[in-house]
Amino acid sequence: MLFRGTARALHVVGLTARRAPVSKRIALAGGAISFGIAYFADEKLGVHHHLDLLRARLIVQNETAPKSDDRVAGASSFKVDPDTEVRFPVSFIPTSPCPPLHLVGLGVRKVSFLRVKVYSAGFYIEESRIKNLHHVPGWHNFTALHLLTPPSPSGSDPLGAPQMTGEALIKSLLDQSVSCAVRIVPVRSTDFSHLRDGFTRALIARQKLARTSGSITETEDARITESIQSLKSLFPSQKVPKGHSLSLVRTKGSLAVEYEGRPLGEVKDAWLAREMMLAYFADKDVISPKLKEDVAQGFEDLMK
Fold it and tell me: How far apart are CA 248 and CA 185, in angstroms?
């Protein structure tokens, strides 16, 4: 039976391979032998139909499987970054102890004067807090424009009513102990050290501003420096392939780092956790203007 099945395959291949180069003939013959063996096994066991169904099922599962190991809630719901075509789950649950998070907005991060795309980032907040955004100080009449407008010297909106604007709005939200996260997906292969250095540069810049303004004491300044070093130590020395996700998760008093749904560690420092989130909504030198704009619109839509 085996030789009969193999002979059938060789006969078919032989009809099309007589004029092919020698290397191609060898490849075709090898393929035909493999096919004959597989044919024999299928015919002998009488499972043609079941194997076909299994193969089809495996192909579908492979094509539709999530690209990340994150525990995604509502995996069928995604939002796509139009600049990079990276998909973000609308809801996901971090590995760190944290309630379900909801995607507010996303945007691409670009660097250098060439505006090279580095990664797409999505900003998430605690789902259960969305319905109470109106009660956050400064958010009672929130619009996207309020988040995108730097504070004015008068501290009021065009109508003359006191209104918080810019980065201060996100700070007011974070002061409510709201869990949130920034989920990052590189659009080109990179490494942990490159991403790590970007995060620490942003934190060091904000530490310097806090030191200059006198909003932190010398003791706090020293502690923050140690916390930044602790954050740097969480990142391994290895590559981060295109399309893999890295999440910075801010919970009560700590910042956790996750890679593809696996925890890399956390730093228990409330200042560092808050300032890492605020760096993406800074009034000056914002990390991703596209992210800030989309989050502003996302918050406005959520509050309608």
Answer: 12
> How far apart are alpha carbons 146 and 138 in whole angstroms?
10
pTM for the whole structure: 0.74
Question: What is the count of structural domains for the chain?
Answer: 2
Q: Which residues contact 262 (CB under 8 A, 6 or more apart)?
A: 69, 95
Angle at 283 between CA 191 and CA 94, to 5 degrees: 45
Classify each residue of 240-269 as buried b or exposed e, where b means 16 or more C-beta atoms within 10 Å of its C-beta.
beeebbbbbbbbeebbbbbbebeebebbeb
Indicate if 136 and 247 belong to the same structural domain.
yes
| C-beta separation of 90 from 74 below 8 A | yes
Asked if 156 and 205 sit in the same domain, the reply is yes
What is the per-residue pLDDT across 114-150, written as a single tens digit (0 to 9) for each? 789 999 999 999 999 999 999 999 999 999 999 999 8
User: Which residue pairs, CB below 8 angstroms and at least 24 apart, start in 25-31?
Assistant: none
